[in-house]
Design goal:
There is one protein chain. Helix content is 29%, strand content 24%. It is α+β, with helices and mostly antiparallel strands and 622 residues long. The longest helix is centred in the N-terminal third of the chain and has 20 residues. The chain is globular.
């Protein structure tokens, strides 16, 4: 067979054949022909390769086993029996599945490792492609193994087993997992699944060893799993969650509940609810590989879930979580805040049922761009919190207790975090002893009645995004490695840190009603020093200066604001909720950046006057 017969596209959908829990498959189903027909069927070195970048487009290359993970999508639709599924047991789909699997098998290295950024003899490390590859291969064996020829099924079993064994035994794999924990968990899922399917007791024993490593080698005492040697808080934690869910199903074990409990306790410290709204902002200056700012809690809309993305992911995360959240009266409750409530899910499903043209709604004729593999979670029983459970979890977030309290956390990789709660505000700092892409220093300022009024994020955006830092010349404190000294005295917290590269010493004194920020030169460099303050305003807020005011909505990127003043206050509905007193007249500038959800992101820059008496700074009055 030189060129296989094309796989036909979906041309009609009968909504009566679809069960509500299957709606999350609609986009994958109506775009499936595009995926299947991209498999190279002609003989040659690329037979079995996807001839267009559908998954992990940034690293699309013939030696990359990760971009082939859509063999799971081929296996899924070939095996899934449903009255609407025209691809069930389709010979053309099974033929392409076999070709894609054979291509993947040929990429494996001598230890079973699968490559990503180079061929197997050159690539390193290979933890991620081997671990996730083992997981997806095991899922294909589980779902579609009975449809495969005996010899292909045997080779699939062996390649999946060898990749799993490499991840769970190789020292270079474990060493990399100590810095990138989420990449290890896929192989644990594969090990338990393969042990169940094949009776491989060795893999079951290796999985038990790996499970112990998750709570020891790969976890920090503050509670988080590692990502790039830092805290895996939001985005990358959900990579882990997608593995913890099937582990809990395949292998009920209290270790998975404990991992989830610890990590939810950690995440909750960075979750900032908006007063009188369901919106919750996620503070992420400390993130090492994801953008540092996002939000949850806004209603999940039909448009968000038409194609794979954040909205659709929220529904997939709910599959199988009931097992991990059973009786979740501890910190696990905070995971409910990331899920659509039962009422939201019912409304979303009703929108599908009521849509006049279901096929057109799926964007099938616009099927371009990425095609992520079908989720391995979708078949588990769906879980959705009740609205009252969602609200109770929101009300229990750590930002709410009135304090005063100070919490300082450290890990063995040199990460340090300081959380300060006073009756009038809640704030956090992130420091580190190593250079990192994460923003270091103060992260946010949250007020019980005003919500988040300062919020920085890390440098994933180009140019670098908003950051709360001091800048001397061309360099700022937000990217420099430094650790702080923390001291509590008489109800106040003092956080001090030196930046020898900039010749600066910085002190934060956090009192019940104010935060004093003091900057002192360690050496007389004579550089211009200014402060960056990442304000987060509401559209109707006013910035009030000594001699006038400006509406937040008028701070356009092209206009901005420039003035000389001593004080800048944020006024909301006629009341000042925060005042920045620079103690002497300074030159300030402010410009708005894109935002959403009725919020206005503003960078306020304050150029300090010459530092008399070897000191400068400002005071935040709450």
């Amino acid at each position: 067979m030189h060129e296989a017969t094309p796989i036909p596209a979906v041309t009609a959908l009968d909504r009566r054949q679809w069960r509500p829990h299957e709606y999350s498959l609609l986009w994958h189903y109506v775009n499936f022909a595009r995926l299947a027909n991209s498999v190279v069927t002609a003989p040659g070195p690329l037979q079995g390769w996807f001839d267009q970048p559908l998954w992990r487009q940034y690293s699309y290359a013939p030696f990359n086993a990760r971009v082939l993970e859509n063999y799971h999508s081929l296996g899924f639709f070939a095996a899934y029996a449903a009255p609407w599924n025209q691809y069930h047991r389709d010979p053309g789909v099974l033929h392409r599945l076999g070709l894609t699997l054979e291509y993947t098998f040929a990429l494996a290295g001598p230890r079973g490792e699968l490559p990503e950024y180079a061929s197997a003899e050159l690539d390193a490390p290979m933890l991620a492609p081997s671990s996730f590859g083992a997981e997806y291969l095991a899922a294909v064996l589980d779902q579609a193994g009975a449809l495969l020829p005996n010899d292909l099924r045997a080779r699939l079993t062996e390649v999946a087993r060898r990749a799993t064994r490499y991840v769970l035994t190789a020292e270079d794999s474990w060493e990399h997992a100590r810095s990138f924990s989420n990449q290890f968990l896929g192989a644990l899922v594969a090990a338990r699944k393969l042990a169940r399917l094949t009776g491989d007791t060795e893999l079951a024993q290796l999985a038990a060893r790996g499970a112990n490593g998750v709570l020891s080698d790969f976890s920090a005492s503050p509670g988080y799993l590692y990502e790039n040697d830092g805290a895996e808080t939001f985005g990358y934690f959900f990579v882990s969650l997608r593995r913890l869910i099937p582990l809990a199903q395949e292998w009920p074990d209290p270790r998975w509940t404990e991992v989830l409990r610890r990590h939810c306790a950690w995440m909750s410290r960075w979750m900032l609810p908006e007063p009188n709204r369901d919106l919750i902002l996620l503070a992420g200056t400390h993130h090492t590989r994801t953008a540092g700012r996002a939000r949850i809690g806004a209603p999940v809309t039909f448009e968000q879930t038409l194609q794979p993305g954040d909205g659709a992911d929220a529904f997939r995360w709910g599959h199988g979580l009931g097992e991990l959240l059973a009786g979740a009266d501890d910190e696990r409750r905070f995971l409910r805040l990331f899920l659509p409530t039962a009422a939201q899910q019912d409304a979303w499903r009703q929108t599908w049922r009521d849509h006049p043209d279901l096929l057109d709604a799926c964007g099938w004729s616009r099927g371009a761009g990425q095609y992520p593999p079908v989720s391995t979670l979708w078949s588990y029983e769906s879980y959705a919190p009740m609205s009252e459970d969602w609200r109770a979890a929101r009300d229990a977030l750590p930002c709410h207790p009135a304090g005063p309290a100070t919490e300082t956390l450290r890990d063995e990789k040199g990460n340090q975090f300081v959380f300060v709660r006073q009756p009038r505000y809640y704030t956090a700092f992130a420091f580190g002893s190593r250079a990192s892409v994460a923003r270091l220093g103060p992260s946010f300022l949250w007020l019980p009645s005003g919500g988040t009024v300062l919020l920085g994020y890390n440098a994933q955006a180009m140019p670098p995004g908003l950051c709360w830092e001091t800048v001397a010349g061309e360099r700022g404190t937000g990217r420099l490695p430094a650790l702080a000294t923390v001291r509590d005295e008489d109800g106040a917290t003092e956080v001090t840190v030196d930046y020898p590269e900039l010749g600066l010493h910085k002190t934060y004194v956090l009192r019940p009603d104010a935060i004093d920020v003091r900057v002192r030169p360690l050496t007389p460099h004579g550089q211009a020093v200014y402060e960056r303050l990442p304000l987060l305003l509401r559209a109707d807020d006013q910035l009030v200066l000594d001699y006038g005011h400006c509406a937040a909505s008028e701070l356009g990127l092209e206009r901005g604001l420039s003035a000389v003043t001593r004080r800048v206050a944020i006024e909301r509905q006629g009341r000042a909720i925060l005042t920045c007193d620079f103690l002497a007249p300074v030159t300030i500038s402010a410009g708005r950046q894109p935002a959403r959800d009725g919020l206005v992101a503003v960078e306020l820059r304050a150029q300090f006057a010459p530092i008399f008496y070897n000191r400068g700074g400002y005071r935040l009055l709450v």
